Fold this sequence. Notes:
Layout: H1 3-11, E1 12-15, E2 18-26, E3 33-38, E4 41-45, H2 54-67, E5 74-78, E6 84-90, H3 94-108
Parallel strand pairs: 2-4
Antiparallel strand pairs: 1-2, 2-6, 3-4, 5-6
Helix pairs in contact: 1-3
Amino acid sequence: xxxxxxxxxxxxxxxxxxxxxxxxxxxxxxxxxxxxxxxxxxxxxxxxxxxxxxxxxxxxxxxxxxxxxxxxxxxxxxxxxxxxxxxxxxxxxxxxxxxxxxxxxxxxx
Length: 109
């Protein structure tokens, strides 16, 4: 078995409306961007503070841009007040997300 596939399948799950993805969020960074994979999550840096939902909104926007969907197609399912979040991304399949994250891991690691 390929360890990359096993790790990514822990991060990504199919959902009736799209795909659930686990994220590790680092607020108050200099830039907002996806930086790689960390444990069982996608690591994302955000330049917004975790105040009044600013970091959650920024997280959804960065994820939407990365996966090529509208920001209205990305929402926080779990972890609204936590650095560990599960986001729902509508309009993409789990296989596409897994392929994109495998490419991200290849670039970063």
